[in-house]
Amino acid sequence: MNQQGRPTKPIETVALTPSTFTGNRALRIEEALIFEIGRPEVTGVDLEEPEGFALREFASSLGDLERKAPIGLPGLAEPEAVRHYVRLSRMNYSIDAGLFPLGSCTMKHNPRLNEKMARLPGFADLHPLQLGSGGAIELIAELSHWLCELTGMPAVAMSPKAGAHGELCGMMAIKAALLDRGEKRSVVLVPESAHGTNPATAALLGFRVEAVPARPDGTVDPEEVKKHLSSDVAAIMLTNPNTCGLFERDVVAIVEAVHAVGAYVYADGANFNAIVGKVRPGDLGVDAMHINLHKTFSTPHGGGGPGAGPVVLSKALAPFAPLPFLVTDKEGPRFVSQAINLTIHKPFGRMCAFYGQMGMFVRAYAYMLAHGADGMRQASEDAVLNANYVRAGLKDLMSLPFGDRPCMHEVLFDDHWLEGTGVTTLDFAKAMIDEGYHPMTMYFPLVVHGAMLIEPTESESKASLDLFVAALRDLAMAAKRGETARFAAAPYYAPRRRLDETRAARQPVLRWVRPEPVKEAAE
Amino acid sequence: MRYLPLTPQDRSEMLARVGVAGIDDLFADIPADRRLTKLPDLPLTKSEIAVERELGRLAAMNVPAGSVPFFVGCGAYKHHIPASVDHLIQRSEFLTSYTPYQPEIAQGTLHHLFEFQTQVAMLTGMEVANASMYDGSTATAEAVLMAHRVTKRKKAVLSGNLHPHYRETVETVSRLSDHLTVVQPRAPQGESDILAAIDNETSCVVVQTPDFFGHLHDLRPIAEKAHAAGALLVAVVTEAVSLGLVTSPGELGADIVVGEGQSFGNALSFGGPYVGLFATRQKYVRQMPGRLVGETVDAEGKRGFVLTLSTREQHIRREKATSNICTNSGLCTLAFSIHLSLLGEAGLRRLARVNHANAVKLATMLSDIKGVEVLNKTFFNEFTIRLPVEASSVVERLFHKGVHGGVSPRRLEWEPPELHNLIIVASTEVNTDEDRAAYVKALKEVLA
Fold first, then answer.
1. pLDDT tens across B18-34, in order?
2. Is residue B141 located within the same domain as residue B121?
3. In the A/B pair of chains, how many CB contacts fall below 8 A?
4. How confident is the model at residue B9 (pLDDT cuts 50, 70, 90)?
5. Which residue in A has a C-alpha nearest to residue B311's C-alpha?
6. pLDDT (tens digit, 9 = 90+) per residue, A307-342?
7. Cα distance from B396 to chain A (closest Cα, Å)?
8. Domain with B406 in it
């Protein structure tokens, strides 16, 4: 108790921010790279020599390939490592610490029970090629059943490792189905508002991408789709709800038109969180859809992964599901891992080693069990309600590109309302950081100017949304009053000010290199 | 429902503020005849206790690797993970952050990714590494596609001793993107005539070392032949700990090194999530797939890190991107990096030597059993034994005696018949003298 008898007095505070010797700001501590603080001879891992076995004297079986040159890796003792990574962690924004309204990313709460379950030794300490893993296979079968029920689809490929990998899987199934019909179609239709992964996936498989423009209300016009349809079209990749936060209300007409020319409908399931328990993609006629378990089913984003992207498949595409796939017979569920003695199945190949993202499967299944059918529908309804509540709170100050109509789980504003203020979408986003919020998705989708896509998710309370709306209103009014300084140089209070991304791209420094020893000044 | 903060009172107030009569008014764009009128046919919400009970039941049906003498490898390895690794990756700020699109408030992630890239480049002997791929198999497929872009050719030559799942992953993406693959025959004894398959249409040669059967390969002659033909050498490493003791592929002439990083910091987790390593030479950096973190400065001149060279990526370039990858293996790279930082050079070399020593010891003991032959002249921590009988039933009988003795290659590919009597055996630092004795005893009993 070093302050006993010496209570601090707030009255002594002065309006001055002195610089510090260390560059630190109290709890905000500057941290060096491990290569600058570690030393090659230090280690944070002790390991016994195998008993009765002199490590230096055993007969090596490395041939002449034993490593000779040093690697250069630094080592940290455990306290140094813990301190290093704890300090780094404190420079990150996270959903645990605050509202994370990143549109189309579904930054919802990550229940800690799911972390605990994924770490049960029966799941975490289980090798994909070992025997004695029936419980894992049963869990995957159960999760598959839930995914099929929630989407109204008959089959699911579990192995894809993230959303884009799921897209690749779905489009491979489509290409394989076409080849099986003896057809080689070359065009894939992608609405302009789609995620970049959609055209990138189609192009990877050798398809030519044709963009379908949106109609003025932000949705896809079936008549416009029909103009692009021909017997050379393999598929349309449709995100529904789309990235403008709108449900494609003519989806049935689009699906029917696409099917009429023998093409398939790939649905991007990034925005599935809006509609769980409300409508099933299978009932809309979709042929394939990936599900981002790290969005809708709450597996943590981890600073950019790992994700998981199972793909549900229609009856037409189910036979082409990749290896390994699950079958259930009288002995229970099992994986078919090789293409031998198959009758109805014509797997197009394999997406990756082993079975997919088991660690994510456990978490997603725990989420589903916890919510149940009723809780998941409630979650979707709350997600949509929260987005509309934000829309209602901001629509008089910020501009809605497609008019005042309900949105799904995210609300899209454009920058029309910032015209003449000297403030850009980017500036506005950076000023949100100073208010303690992660910015919304900005400049995406590309179909509106200066897009700001806000997805609050169902995890936010009304009080949290009220404060968020009030903060954004204050910022919006400041922008309109011409207080550009609050925006142009923002953020002021983040661990870093704006970073020079141009310099990073022009003179790429992609790794640490040992600095040249500084020569002594002239003697 | 414990994860949903809105109360019925909140909901009705909010609906009024939005100006609609009921929640279904917000879903009015969904065609009425397709809307669900009742709940899906699935169980209802459960308490935390009930969820734990159900998942505990499923977990208890499995045999954790750490509970038995365990010698299973083939692309995923049972290593000890220091306690601090899992503690640190569960920090909220790492666990529940997003891809670092807003660098001012994501320096924690960007800083550690920059360190990860450097560690991977050092380990593999390459100049640059990206911020990860999904896993080793998908990284290998991406390496082949990158080699096609660099060489403007479309034929990949794959070693027959590439992990069968990796080979199938490459073959699948190649076939469906209209590229060619030539696969060399399996060579359980380790010899290979891959040099003869390289010609002037070859874009890359893909060689795993240590390979599927555990053999180490001197890549120098392959690199020489590939380079003379204008092709790239892609080296694949599925056991990253080997890089602590074996000369790196970069030093032996590889142009792209890909690998599986699970061995550092990441649990077995029944095959995923893992972490794909991807490293190459500086001159190819603009053809790389995936995210890259670069160093820069902020407006006050302080060092900071950002995602960079993103004009290669799908969110900017769309159909012209080098890959469709978006989310990768963020948190798994952190586990990898923390474990490797704790090890450091000294700890890594020791870990690798203990792995190798344990494998040498086990190989010696198994080869002393009548009828058992070790096929490898070289290996790191994994080798192949040939039995006088069909091997997959032996693996099963060992399992019933409480020993996980390895992998029958038939588990991954049914043919050719010369694989039928083989077991691929891995031994790491977790194995004890008791584990080895149990294995030898059980195998003797099974073969008797």
1. 999 999 999 999 999 99
2. yes
3. 731
4. very high
5. A505
6. 999 999 999 999 999 999 999 999 999 999 999 889
7. 8
8. 68-79+344-447
Go through A130-155 and write b for each residue having 16 or more CB atoms within 10 A of its CB, e for each that does not: bbbbebbbbbbbbbbebbbbbbbbeb
* pLDDT higher than 60, residue A380: yes
Instruction: Choose the closest CB to A120 out of B59, B135, B407.
Output: B59
Contact B104 A494 (CB under 8 A): yes
Residue A107 above 90 pLDDT? yes
B51, B173, B331 ranked by CB distance to A370: nearest: B51
Decide if pLDDT at B417 tops 90. Answer: no
B342·A72 Cβ contact <8 A: no
Among residues A216, A271, B32, A235, the alpha carbon closest in space to that of A225 is found at A235
- Closest Cα in chain B to A62: B378
Q: What is the DSSP letter of A321?
A: P
Identify whether B179 is part of a domain. yes
DSSP string over B249-311: TTTTT-SEEEEE-TTTT---GGG-S--EEEEE-GGGGGG--S--EEEEEBTTS-EEEEE--GG
Report if residue B15 sits inside a domain.
no
In tens, the pLDDT along B376-395 reads 999 999 999 999 999 999 99
**CATH tag, A114-367:** 3.40.640.10
Residue of A nearest to B355 (CA): A50
Residues of B in contact with A110 (CB under 8 A): 95-96
Inter-chain touch B334–A302, beta carbons under 8 Å: yes
Nearest-by-Cβ selection for A63 from B4, B104, B216: B216
Residues B278 and B406 occupy one common structural domain: no
CATH of the domain at B106: 3.40.640.10
Question: Best interface-test mutation with B: which of A511, A512, A514 has the largest number of B CBs within 10 A?
Answer: A511
* Residues in contact with B176: Cβ distance below 8 Å, sequence separation at least 6, in sequence order: A172, A175, A176, A205, A206, A348, A349
- Show residues of chain B in contact with A203, CB under 8 Å: 319-321
Q: With an 8 Å Cβ cutoff, is B292 touching chain A?
A: yes
Contact B34 A252 (CB under 8 A): yes
Residue B414: what pLDDT? 75
Q: How far apart are CA B137 and CA B140, in angstroms?
A: 5
pLDDT at B312 (0 to 100): 87
What pTM was computed for the model?
A: 0.97
| Cβ count within 10 A of residue B253 | 18
Q: Please give the pLDDT value at position A11.
A: 59
Query: B443: domain CATH number?
Result: 3.90.1150.10
B38 at A interface, C-beta within 8 A:
no
d(Cα B270, Cα A139) in Å, to the nearest integer?
12
User: In B130-180, which ranges are continuous DSSP H helix?
Assistant: 136-151, 164-176
> Does a cis peptide bond (omega within 30 degrees of 0) precede residue B82?
no
Q: Does B61 touch chain A (CB under 8 A)?
A: yes
Predicted confidence at residue A523, as pLDDT, reads 45
pLDDT tens digits for range B49-83: 999 999 999 999 999 999 999 999 999 999 999 99
Label residue A50 by pLDDT band (50, 70, 90): confident
Cβ contact, residue pair B104, A495, below 8 Å: yes
CB contact under 8 A, A117 and B295: no
**In the prediction, which pLDDT does A287 show?**
98
Is B286 an interface residue toward A (CB < 8 Å)?
A: no
Q: How many residues does chain B have?
A: 448
Of B319, B339, B359, which residue constitutes the final position of a domain?
B339
Terminal Cα-to-Cα distance of chain A (whole angstroms): 52
Confidence of residue A9 (pLDDT cuts 50, 70, 90): low
Contact at CB, B172 and A322, closer than 8 angstroms: yes
pLDDT mean across residues, chain B: 96
- Whether residue B1 is contained in a domain is answered as no
Give me the CATH code for the A374-506 domain, please.
3.90.1150.10
CB proximity B170 to A under 8 Å: no
